[in-house]
Amino acid sequence: MTVVFQGGQSMPAKIGTPFLKGNVPWNKGLAINNTEMFWSQVMKTNSCWNWTGGVRSKRHPYGTFNINGKRWLAHRYSYFLSTGKTPKTLDHLCRNILCVNPKHLECVSSRVNTQRGNSAKLSSNSISVIRQLYEIGRNQPYIASLFGVGQWQISRIINLKQWNNI
Ligand SMILES: [Zn+2]
User: Fold this and answer.
1) pTM of the prediction?
2) Engineered SS bond to 101: which of 49, 72, 92, 115, CB 3.0-4.6 Å?
3) Residue 133 Cα, ligand 1 centroid: separation in angstroms?
């Protein structure tokens, strides 16, 4: 069985692919495969599995990991290892972008993604109105329908997970 990696290059799915043949920087000569190398950089806790290796950039501090010269986002690689899939968009349900626990990752359909993108359309004024409506006892589905957004979004606003500076 072979898996097609991003970019169309294929490689054996089984564990055992040597990592940088004979040139493992911190353990020369020992055959270490990509998967072992990957997990050696993950610190597991009871909930999140935190990536401790390199990150993409200061602005977008997602974990990154190189496989045969190809750069992967760490959470995407972890998701791939557990599901065999590389969906276009993966969302962190735990909101911890360094987390690579596949259980905390959700494959987001393009529809939901567009909806989430729409969140930017809510003005800071709407945010306070949403919180006030909730405080006076309006329920979340009702508020969501008023603003034409998903209920998950209302919930995040109320729970201060988004726009908590407002
Ligand atoms: Zn997590």
Assistant:
1) 0.51
2) 49
3) 31
